[in-house]
Amino acid sequence: MLLEKAPAKINLTLDVLHKRDDGYHEVEMIMTTVDLYDQIQLTELEQDEIVIKSEKRFVPDDRRNLAFQAAEKLKEKFQIKKGVLITIRKQIPVAAGLAGGSSDAAAVLRGLNKLWGLHLSFEQLAEIGTEIGSDVAFCIYGGTALATGRGERIEKLPAPPTCWVILAKPSIGVSTKAVYGKLNTANIVHPHTSDMVSAIKEGNYEKMCKNLGNALEQVTLEMHTEVRQIKNQMLSAGADNVLMSGSGPTVFGLTQKQSRADRIYNSLRGFCEEVYVVRMLGKQISVD
Ligand SMILES: C[C@](O)(CO)[C@H](O)COP(=O)(O)OP(=O)(O)OC[C@H]1O[C@@H](n2ccc(N)nc2=O)[C@H](O)[C@@H]1O
Ligand SMILES: Nc1ncnc2c1ncn2[C@@H]1O[C@H](COP(=O)(O)OP(=O)(O)OP(=O)(O)O)[C@@H](O)[C@H]1O
């Protein structure tokens, strides 16, 4: 039996450059993992099958689950004739823009690499992960990175300046495909990715806050008024800046003061069911 943590990610920036011929969008985004985790337990089975268990509604227990696809890919590619029970203790909100499913898939790839003694590098696991979803490669490494291409090309960055992150997810789920589908690439307000990279490298918290930006935010804001309400609520409770993560609908606010993090958290409870105060992890996931 083996346990593997699957952390959520947030987007500090998300820029869309253009739509590609293969239907995906060329992106440039800075992502960082936070200490909100799903717990993945991998148990070897006698029978040659993949079984998914999760107590949470909305999490599929068949091939639609990205964790299932991760195990299936490894079995196919390396002709593994063993079975595995994948138990997912879900803590990351579902369909939230926090890469929950992608991080579960990445954790299964890392975990089975150990359990089945495959000795694959993180680079090889990231390549396999990309066949499952655009965010999986980043989730293999965790930490902070600039992701380009359709999200699969990863360049490591140092840890962002220390701060509190308040996450709030309104009670709606958002389909990433639908948000990209509604995006008008001619009307994008592009975030300043290179300024965010330098903010992180300089450890400049104010500059990081100033340069938060997400090209998909406007699309989701127009679909769901709750996202705007949460942004306004966080700002009026004292967040230094706020942004929607990924394709949403989760919004995060930043502050360096714990008392203010508490105030923002309290101001959202009752208003919004899923609220968390977390830290950015900064560090990448270690190979062992
Ligand atoms: C919004 C983000 O989560 C930000 O990190 C990612 O860009 C999306 O990553 P993901 O959920 O792993 O996305 P995938 O499962 O690869 O793709 C879902 C759908 O989103 C759209 N999609 C995704 C990534 C991308 N660079 N361009 C796209 O247009 C495509 O319509 C695709 O069919
Ligand atoms: N392991 C999983 N955990 C949660 N949802 C999963 C999982 N595998 C597949 N899904 C399906 O994927 C859909 C999107 O869920 P997920 O939580 O991964 O979205 P997300 O956080 O918005 O992802 P991203 O930020 O990568 O776009 C869900 O509605 C669910 O049906």
UniProtKB/TrEMBL annotation:
Pathway: Isoprenoid biosynthesis; isopentenyl diphosphate biosynthesis via DXP pathway; isopentenyl diphosphate from 1-deoxy-D-xylulose 5-phosphate: step 3/6. One of its GO terms (molecular function) is ATP binding. One of its GO terms (biological process) is terpenoid biosynthetic process. It comes from the Bacteria. Residues 65-143 form the GHMP kinase N-terminal domain. Residues 196-272 form the GHMP kinase C-terminal domain. ATP binds at residues 93-103. Keywords: ATP-binding, Isoprene biosynthesis, Kinase, Nucleotide-binding, Transferase. The keyword Nucleotide-binding applies. It holds the Pfam family GHMP_kinases_N. The keyword Kinase applies. It catalyses: 4-CDP-2-C-methyl-D-erythritol + ATP = 4-CDP-2-C-methyl-D-erythritol 2-phosphate + ADP + H(+). The active site is at 9, 135. PANTHER family: 4-DIPHOSPHOCYTIDYL-2-C-METHYL-D-ERYTHRITOL KINASE, CHLOROPLASTIC (PTHR43527). Catalyzes the phosphorylation of the position 2 hydroxy group of 4-diphosphocytidyl-2C-methyl-D-erythritol. This is 4-diphosphocytidyl-2-C-methyl-D-erythritol kinase. It comes from Salirhabdus euzebyi. The gene is ispE.
